[in-house]
Design brief:
Layout: H1 3-16, H2 28-37, E1 42-51, E2 61-68, E3 71-75, E4 79-83, E5 87-92, E6 97-102, H3 111-121, E7 123-129, E8 134-140, E9 146-154, E10 159-167, E11 172-182, E12 202-205
Parallel strand pairs: 6-12
Antiparallel strand pairs: 1-2, 1-11, 2-3, 3-4, 4-5, 5-6, 7-8, 8-9, 9-10, 10-11
Helix pairs in contact: 1-3
């Protein structure tokens, strides 16, 4: 699976983290957007697994992600993706190279575009709440990159616990949220790539 698809999946989780378990499925995405906008920023510590055939999974990996407006940063074991909303830096750690591109150059997995896509194109269905108060919500779009997304949400705390993301090629990503933190003081340079801190990195400007 391409790393950009994992990045897109994690951004999708950011877009859905505030969904609440309400009976009226038509209100789910509206509530999601409103609650997400109420926070200055969001940080998520997570574990994720990937299965190319949707059945057999590799080892679980860890990551961190932050979202603030249209800016975001996602840190995986071998890659970092950073955007200030205007520029995207894709840093391949082992290769010691960073690819620089414009956020508007055909990139379809930015937080804002994901929010719009979910709101307009994904059908949300609340399929049930178990005895522990965990709600299951299905997001479906037969024509989308993500054919189906199954969310497990703590209804009382409005906290995302787990997401199964089914891709159009039959692969599957499972993400488990370990911790969510809100409204931090991240600093002006947090959502930029500092080449001074990485003097050996080869910068490939694709703009």
């Amino acid at each position: 699976m391409k790393k950009r698809n994992i990045i897109a999946c994690l951004l999708l989780l950011f877009a859905t983290q505030a969904v609440t378990a309400q009976n009226n499925a038509e209100t789910l995405l509206r509530v999601m957007v409103d609650q997400l906008k109420s926070h200055k920023n969001v940080e998520m510590a997570f574990g994720y697994q990937f299965s190319p055939d949707g059945k057999n999974f590799g080892d679980s990996e860890k990551g961190h992600a932050w979202l603030q407006g249209q800016a975001y940063k996602i840190e995986l074991a071998d890659q970092q993706t950073i955007s200030d909303g205007t520029t995207i830096w894709s840093y391949l750690i082992e290769d010691e190279e960073v690819m620089v591109s414009n956020a508007t150059d055909g990139v379809d997995n930015t937080p804002l575009k994901l929010l719009t896509s979910l709101d307009e194109n994904y059908a949300a269905t609340l399929t049930g709440i178990d005895a522990q108060g965990v709600a299951t919500i299905e997001l479906a779009n037969p024509k989308g990159q993500y054919k189906r997304v199954t969310l497990k949400i703590n209804a009382a705390k409005t906290e995302l616990q787990n997401a199964d993301i089914y891709m159009d090629d039959g692969s599957k990503v499972v993400v488990t949220v370990e911790k969510m933190t809100f409204d931090q003081d991240l600093g002006d340079k947090f959502f930029t790539f500092d080449t001074k801190k990485h003097p050996k990195v080869d910068v490939i400007d694709m703009r």
